[in-house]
Amino acid sequence: MDSFQLLMEGFATALTPVNLLYALVGVTLGTLVGVLPGIGPAMTVALLLPITFTVPPASAFIMFAGIYYGGMYGGSTTSILLNTPGESSSMITALEGNKMARRGRAAQALATAAIGSFVAGTIATGLLVVAAPLVVDFAISFGPEDYFALAVLAFTAVSSVLSRSVVRGLASLGIGLVIGLVGIDQQTGQARLTLGVPQLLDGIDVVIVAVGLFALGEVLYVASRLRHGEPEVVPVGRAFLGRSDWSRSWRPWLRGTALGFPFGALPGGGAEIPTFLSYSIEKRLARGVAREEYGKGAIEGVAGPEAANNASAAGTLVPLLTLGLPTSATAAILLAAFQQYGLQPGPQLFDHNPALVWGMVASLFIGNTMLLVLNLPLAPLWARVLHVPRPYLYAGIVLFAALGVYALNSSWVELVILYILGMLGFAMRRFGLPVAPAVIGMILGPMAEIQLRRALAIGAGDVTVLVRSPIAAVLLVVALLVLAAPLVRKLVARPSRGA
């Protein structure tokens, strides 16, 4: 069955009234949390993970996908109106977007962000439909050593890219791997790192880890740094674009899409690099009025990076769905959600659960349209959300996180673990350790351990079995290059500074 026919069946799943409602809830929640500084899509999906015990898988992932796309757009609203990026990928949008807003062009900045997000998201989702089956066909040939090498590449790439230093990224990864070891060893039956607590024999639930490190840790950190009153929000009317704005925006939208999708699909690629590249390219290509406006509020500096940002979100889903490889914080939480349903993303997911996968992909087209309809007329409403008192907001998140975790098993031990992990997440942010590598280490660590043991068992204990496969050898070499790249850059930069 070809991809187009499978996509049509996915639309049949996504267009049911219940799933349309979940898609609407997802994009609305995503936009809402994206607008609020310090609360991103990863935290929101983490907070909502407990619903995986009551909601059917297809509906849950349609809602999570809506949150992901909505959060990507909502971050641009904060960047433009407050000069405060809600996500790291929205930092570039703030450079020109806030200056446009202060020149009285907030409506145009929000409109080019909304329409650019729609254009990029739609094109990138189309590319996802084409690319995913190709990667699945390739992944079918993977053996245990290939999956282990893939996990090592994910570890090194995420630790290097999502951190200011490789050492801090690897330290965070180590924390996640240790958390993943807690519980009974699946092969020997030995209890590991349980400290004599019976509730830890089954390991620490991934929901508790995700909510504790992401949601609780982020709230505690943001609240600890809250030293100012109500933010000053730039006034905004209904978002619209004039003829000149259209002519200046459509090319950056397409160029941003072309940059964002492949970077999102790369392990550790993320959205930060393509948004930076898009801004640089648009600045170099600027002529006439656009060149004069750069640094003062050029619309191209908003259109290109926002398109790259949203295209990378669709690119992230390619390795997640086809290989089970998360390349961003939100993708790591989505992987945790799959595991809550007893599902493992990869080639078998496409064979055994096509309605779930293609329903989720189809919902991205629907969610993009909903976002456009929601965001163009409701821009003033999202601006008012920024006036919500922060103490009430963060207290509500802490309470909701505790209720969600306690509802899992009604265990006070899990509540204690939640708050311990929340304090750990706060400490990691305080000392500059990224949280995403820890969550990815906790989720992928057990899988990497199982695949390593299988490979060594097949090779009768011979370590060289890990590099006999050409795929595994290439992946391990790439992982080594990713790990060595920051060191090489420093060594090259040192003589040039001396000169």
Automatic annotation (TrEMBL):
Residue span(s) of domain DUF112: 20-440
Domain of life of the organism encoding this protein: Bacteria
Pfam families the UniProt entry points to: TctA
Entry keyword set: Membrane, Transmembrane, Transmembrane helix
UniProt key word Transcription regulation: no
Segments passing through the bilayer: 20-39, 45-69, 109-132, 138-158, 165-184, 204-223, 317-338, 358-379, 391-409, 415-444, 465-488
Keyword check for Membrane: yes
The protein, known as: DUF112 domain-containing protein
Species name: Streptosporangium roseum (strain ATCC 12428 / DSM 43021 / JCM 3005 / KCTC 9067 / NCIMB 10171 / NRRL 2505 / NI 9100)
